[in-house]
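Backbones bend. We report:
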Amino acid sequence: MLDRFTMPLTHRPLASMARYLSNRQVTPDQVTLVAFLVGMSALPLLAFEYYVLALMAILLNRLGDGLDGALARLSGQQSDAGGFIDIGLDFVFYAAVVLGFALANPGQNALAAAVLLFAFIGTGTSFLAFAIAAKARNVERPNFPQKAFYYLEGLTEGTETVIALVLFCLFPHYFPWLAGLFAAGCLITAATRLWGGYWTLR
């Protein structure tokens, strides 16, 4: 819901960082993989309840997620392969963070984590399945032309997900409630994407 407003705000700082990396021969795929590895460190950090360190890993991962695309556009290295590995690793990372909270306190967090992962399946599959069909039909993507795939909007997008992950880390004792609320938003997103995507493709 908020990505159309937040993404334009990040273009200039990401472009500046991308120019710095490009001058040092860093490739977009290298940024993607490093960001993923840094993000995955949040899993053990969360499991051992180092929430501040986990939050830093999460934020660095999200910075890298924006930076690899900016670098690809700047260097003319945009590709389907890059877009594929980027979104694939994103969903693995999101699931890992939720798993980290489940491991931190199984008695309190496991059920909420399972519900949120269930909701993530809905948002992720509806998002990616539509992108495949949109690519085959050459459907335009007016709000996010810089994306490597069709970016299907919804109530919970990248910005809302980052906000949720930050809140989880800042208020870990409220994870079941926060995760439940976010899961509800994700399920609404999945339902609206499935409905809207079906009628768009018809």
